[in-house]
Amino acid sequence: xPKARTQHPNAALTxxxxxxxxxxxxxxxxxxxxxxxxxQVDAKTVVKWRxxxxxxxxDGLFDRSSRPKSSxxxxxxxxxxxxxxxxxxxRWGAGHIGHEVGxxxxxxxxxxxxxGLQRLDSGDRATAEPIHRYQRDRPGELIPDxxxxxxxxxxxxxxxxxxxxxxxxxxxALDDRTRIVYSEIHANEQAITAVGFWKRxxxxxxxxxxxxxxxxxxxxxxxxxxxxxAALEELGITPKFTRPYRPQTNGKVERFHRIxxxxxxxxxxxxxxxxxxxxxxxxxxxxxxxxxxGALGWSTPxxxxxDNVSGHHx
Length: 314
Prior knowledge:
This protein is mainly alpha-helical. It folds into 3 domains: 15-61; 77-114; 143-306, Ribonuclease H-like superfamily/Ribonuclease H (Nucleotidyltransferase, domain 5, 2-Layer Sandwich), CATH 3.30.420. The chain is 41% helix and 7% strand. The strands form 2 sheets. The protein has a 3-stranded parallel beta sheet. Strands 2-3 form a two-stranded antiparallel ribbon. Helix 8 (226-234) links the parallel strand 4 (214-217) and strand 5 (238-241). The N and C termini lie far apart (63 Å).
């Protein structure tokens, strides 16, 4: 039966037993009380199955679905389609999607499970280690800079001495407080390239009213160079470094690169490097101006900036 549920093997009344019970009442003339005593059930139960048998025949003796005929508070079909669309196009989690569509994260997760979209099969997955979060109080107090081994895998990223065909290097600077990011794509990660990038990044943050105090990077040779240190000292900025083989120290920029993998690099097939680079500029703008962040209470980086920089308060 399409509406029948699996019957418990030790149930007191299986459909077969229910049929025997109602036939004793209908065909053999047993009273309701006598049939109830015989099958050790309440008299109301005998009446219920008798009436169903008279109305529907043997089909009425099967359990019915407990699902209501109508659900006024059910998620509308167009909202379900939007949830599925965001999952496939943006690869966002249930909480982020819930914020965008105005639904609880648990509701979104239920919909994703029903559609078989509860897991993201590609991309870097979180480790089982506890996450220790920190966040500076002022914009510009700390700027995570650089990349990380997670982009290519530890020890697998090409160096300038090897062929770099098909590779580009992402240089990113992200404000610890607001998550506003400045990022460029370059052909190498030499010290002179990193310094030129940082000067443009620092000017970018200055135009937003952010004065950079510290910059934390990984231990790449370009960041350990005298040229890099001199460039920061000239601007009155303190250089800091992550612990070796500990990318969690620079977790915010690592998270930004993971988002790049999921929402930009592998979200579609690129026909050429020019097309990919053009879309990258749009994505960086989207990330800072329009993409809500769970760590910011689902605010955007730019809206967070307005609440934390003097002169930007509304």
